[in-house]
Amino acid sequence: MGYGxxxxxxxQFWRANRISPKRQILCDYPQAILDLVINGIGVAMVxxxxxxxxxxxxxxxxxxxxxxxxxxxxxxxxxxxxDNPDLQLLKQSVEEIWPIRPD
Length: 103
Hints:
Domain LysR substrate-binding: 6-95
Strand order of the largest sheet: 1-2
Protein name: LysR family transcriptional regulator
Helix content: 25-40%
């Protein structure tokens, strides 16, 4: 199972680890995926903060650290707003949260 926002990333993960799941569920709601895992229905790739919050709530699940993944995030906007002061402030805030890392 996987969080819907990471479909391409999930497929790359399966290939890299030579895993061929019989069934996959892609869902935009990480909590729904976590509920399935907690009920013993599969494994999942979900945002770490969602898994960690479930663990803090004493939900019975474990994170496999050796399979922890990172996923590139992109901030996009219409070019016509490049000089907009509000956009400049928003870009500055995003850069503070998501520091630019060289590839």
